[in-house]
Amino acid sequence: MAKAMQAREGSRWRGSNVYLIVVFAILYAPIFYLMLYSFNSGGSMHDFQGFTLEWYKEVFADTRLFIIVLNTLVIALLSSALSTILGVFGALAIQQVRRHRHRNALLALNNVLIVSPDVIIGASFLILFTMIGIKLGFVSVLLAHLAFSVPIVVIMVLPKLEEMSPTWIDAARDLGASRLDVLTKVVLPYIRPGIFAGFFMALTYSLDDFAVTFFVTGNGYSTLAVEIYSRARQGISLSINALSTLIFLFTIVLVIGYYFINKRGNRPPGTEVQR
Amino acid sequence: MPSRTRLRMSDKSRNWYLIPYTAWIVLFVVAPIALVVYYSLFDIEGKFTFSNYAHFFTPVYLRMTLSSFWYAFLITAFSLLVAYPAAYLLTRTKHKQLWLLLIILPSWINLLLKTYAFLGIFGTYGFVNAVLETVGIGKQQILFTDFSFVFVSVYIFIPFMILPVFNALEKMNPSLIDAARDLGASSWTTFRRVIFPLTISGVKAGCQAVFIPALSLFMITRLIAGNRVITLGTAIEQHFLVTQDWGMGATIAVFLVVVMALIMVLTGNRKKREVQG
């Protein structure tokens, strides 16, 4: 009897694992399919004919593409750095609002850009920038990315602020710290893991964004996602495959970095507050 | 009570942080929505009119809206169908966090690249057709069909569905399942009466995270479905970037915002009632 139960447990365990493995296989198959064919000398995404690095050479020789990659990185880093600063201000502001109604209203306004579909964000920003008279290009893309990253940073930083005991601030004030000292020596070090997490989230949102950028980028300025879209619309070209393999590797490096920062952030608070 | 008085003092002292943050809200949250509403009241020649709204409620646009909702519903339903068991099984694995990271990882790859991969896989000479041929079914037109559109969208959205369901399952007290089993409930009854009702908040969050974007997808429809499937998102993109009829595009956007707000309010209210009940 016990053996039969064990056997049943075993088969169920296997059955459930098979399901998970199938889901994983489907999730990863397209990515590996892309990577595999980036080495195909045949020039198409079927009939693997032979190994070649030709497409990688093409990617590295493409100066236009290089500039676009540079554009993407500059936009991502700049927008997430600026939005982190603004987002930390936002979290501090929300935390200081004591009245429940005002606070909920602020939070609701904060979340509008997180839940809105990209198309609407893109279209409304396009109207906004044309109304104000900002030329579509670097500035408009940067502002758009900055705008949609701020609420994400707020969401990541606010829980950390809330978790901090107010007695810390009282203690610092009693010991004679100025407002600025309290901010830079007590509050900011404490919420640092949240700030880092927010920065990384903003970075990934920016790197991943296509739809919003597609609306507010004018002629002549392009980020990677927009460039891939316009190339993919013309059909298959294996240099996109090579490029996506490189992006995949880069993403993995980012994920590992994020993972370790998160791990460091989970250290018990207080062990790294003051130096 | 010194801390109480200090709190009141800091309440009175100005909340300086609010200044940059409010500026952001006004400029990038309030102004864009107001502008979209404003633009929806002008026709292509810049005349003030309600004709855009009248136009929206004609059969052409209503049919498009309905089909857009139907596709979004299909995409959400299939994502849930695949994601729920996966999330459930994930909570039973040994290295949960690692598995979860592996699930999330594909969602960090730009979704354009994943969509592009399906151009190859579903293509006339692609992997799926090669398999179909060896099985004996023969070549099929897969790309540019409703099937490929729904499949690719579900593929893209699965991680976004798994995550909230997984979190809800993790929050559930496991002794409740044991209790149900001890009281003689079958696995199916346990799932139907205990597990699913307790994780409904995660399911709702997941459906929100899938349904709203699915209504407004446009790059997948363009790349995978050709121009066969036109969603509300495709129509907005078309009006803003191709025909330059911003008024009509803004009208559809207003409609989408209203629908979105309705969905949020409906799912939010129900949650409150649950807590009370």
Automatic annotation (TrEMBL), chain A:
Q: Name one GO biological process term.
A: transmembrane transport
Q: Does the keyword Transmembrane apply?
A: yes
Signal sequence range: none
Q: Which GO terms describe its cellular component?
A: plasma membrane
Residues of the ABC transmembrane type-1 domain:
69-258
Quote the subcellular location field of this record. Answer: Cell membrane
Q: Which family does it belong to?
A: Belongs to the binding-protein-dependent transport system permease family. CysTW subfamily.
Q: What protein am I looking at?
A: Binding-protein-dependent transport systems inner membrane component
UniProtKB/TrEMBL annotation, chain B:
* Entry GO CC: plasma membrane
Q: Which biological processes are named by the entry's GO terms?
A: transmembrane transport
The highest taxon in the source lineage is Bacteria
- Record's InterPro entries? MetI-like, MetI-like_sf
Recite the UniProt keywords alphabetically.
Answer: Cell membrane, Membrane, Transmembrane, Transmembrane helix, Transport
Q: Where in the cell is it found?
A: Cell membrane
All copies of domain ABC transmembrane type-1, residue ranges: 65-267
Family according to the record: Belongs to the binding-protein-dependent transport system permease family. CysTW subfamily.
State what protein this is by name.
Binding-protein-dependent transport systems inner membrane component
Q: Which organism is it from?
A: Paenibacillus curdlanolyticus YK9
